[in-house]
Amino acid sequence: MKCLPKKIGIIGTGHLAGFLVEGMVKSGADCEFTLSPRGAQTAASLTEKFGAKIGTDNQSVIDVSDLIIIAVLPDIAKNVLEGLKFTNSQVVLSTMAGVSHATMSELVSPASTACTMMPGLSNSLGIGPSILYPNNPVAESFLKALGPVHTFTDWNSYQTASVFGGFSGNTFIFMKQIIDWFISQGLDDITAKNLIAETLRGNAEALLQSPLSVDELISTVATPGGITARGAISLKNDGADKAWHDALNAISQKIKSTQ
Ligand SMILES: NC(=O)c1ccc[n+]([C@@H]2O[C@H](COP(=O)([O-])OP(=O)(O)OC[C@H]3O[C@@H](n4cnc5c(N)ncnc54)[C@H](OP(=O)(O)O)[C@@H]3O)[C@@H](O)[C@H]2O)c1
Description:
Layout: E1 7-11, H1 15-27, E2 32-35, H2 40-50, E3 53-54, H3 58-63, E4 67-70, H4 77-81, E5 91-94, H5 101-108, E6 112-117, E7 130-133, H6 137-144, E8 149-151, H7 155-161, H8 163-184, H9 189-209, H10 214-221, H11 227-237, H12 240-258
Parallel strand pairs: 1-2, 1-4, 2-3, 4-5, 5-6, 7-8
Antiparallel strand pairs: 6-7
Helix pairs in contact: 1-2, 8-9, 8-12
The chain binds NADP nicotinamide-adenine-dinucleotide phosphate (NAP).
C-alpha cells in the first residue's frame, strides 16, 4: 500500500462512509479520516469508534486531505461540489453510481479523478470487490485494502460492470426470500440464515477456485432427474431467469440516465 496517502477525507458521511472507515481501520492501514459534518450522527459514531475527525464544512475536509472520497447521493453531486476548491496534488475518488468520470473531472479540476463502485457492507470486512476507472495508483491502493480491485480502461465497460453494485444489494433481498421460506416451514431463524449464507459462501468460493466453467460446474451438481433439476424447471417456468435479466437491465438504465 505504498501509494496510500495518510490523510483521507470523505464528503458524504452516510452508510458507505461508515463501511469505508471501518474497513480501512480493520485493514491496519496507516491513515487518518476527516469527515464532512452532514450526517452528524454517523460522523459522531465514527469518531467515537474509529477516531475519525469531523471538518467544520466540506471545504475544510478537502483542505486537510490528499485523497478525497465523494459519497453523497448522485443527484446532489453537482450542487455539493460546485464552488469547492481542489488542488492538482489531490486525488478525488467518486463512489456515486452513474455520475460520469467526465462530469467529476470538470467538478473537481485540477485534482485527478477516478470512479469506483463497490458493494459497501463487505468492504467493511475487507472482502468486497471494487471496480475502478481509470487506473489511479492512489485510488487503487485505497480500494485494495477493502477487497479485490478490477480496473477498467474504457468507460462503457466500467459502466456495465457498475451494475454489480445494484446486483449486490439485490442478493440480500434474494437471500431474505429464501431464508423466509425455510422459517415459514418451521426452521429457526439462526439455522435458516446460517444455512443459506454458508451455502452461498461455499458455492461462491467453489466458483472462484474451480478451473471448470460455470456450465461444467452446474452439470456436476445437477443430477439428471434430481432435486436441483426439479427446482430449475420450476424457476424457468415461473420466469426467474427473465426477472433477473430485467432487473439488471433496469439497474443499468438507471446508472446510464444519471451521468
Ligand atoms: N451504501 C452503500 O453500500 C453504497 C455502495 C456503493 C456506492 N454507494 C454510493 O455512495 C453514495 C452514498 O450512499 P449512502 O448509502 O452512503 O447514502 P447515505 O447513507 O444517504 O449518505 C449520504 C450522506 O450525504 C450527506 N449529505 C447530504 N447533503 C450533503 C452536503 N451538501 N454535503 C455533505 N454531505 C451531504 C447526508 O447527510 P444528511 O443525513 O445530513 O442529509 C448523508 O450523511 C451514493 O452515491 C451511492 O450511490 C453506496
